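Lab notebook, bench 4. Still working through the backlog of constructs that have no structural model yet. Next entry is a single chain of 183 residues. Request: give me the structure tokens for it.
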Amino acid sequence: MEGGEALRGSSVEERIREITGRVAQEHGLELVHVEMASVGRLPVVRIFIDKPGGVTHEDCAQVSLHVGTILDVEDFIHSVYTLEVSSPGLERGLYKREDYERFAGQLAKIKTRGAIGGQRNFRGRLVAVEGDTVVFDDRTNGRVFIPLQEIAKANTEIDVEEEFRLAEEREKEKKQRLETAGG
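Model written out:
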């Protein structure tokens, strides 16, 4: 088998998700996603975790230690592998229906398996989820309805202008507090 193919068997992948989900929950964390990949011929297990306020290096280290220990003891990955644990990042991947519901109103990018209205790549704002369809305001074509099963890849996008505006507001509030406290 090629590098990551040994990990792609559904029972192995499901077992890794089950273990990782349990460990994340025990540490008060959300399991965002588990992905299997190959770097050269070396299998890589990537785990993405989150919590309100973001994850710390310590969170990642604890999950890595616990998941790694369980995987080594159960020994169902039949080769040397690399385990990576990290936050989902600023432009968080969207993997399940709940992700689209949770991040409704935010900017996002979506790539579909097949064309929808002659288009496969969409950028804009997540509106809602209706049934098994994501309602999306695309910058190019306006409102589109994208079936969840047609989504190949999706992630949130940072609204840089909004982030600068919020930073300015925080700075003004900080100045006002200092002026009030000092005067």
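Notes after review: The chain has two domains: 5-86, 90-183. The first helix runs from residue 5 to 8. Flag for follow-up if needed.
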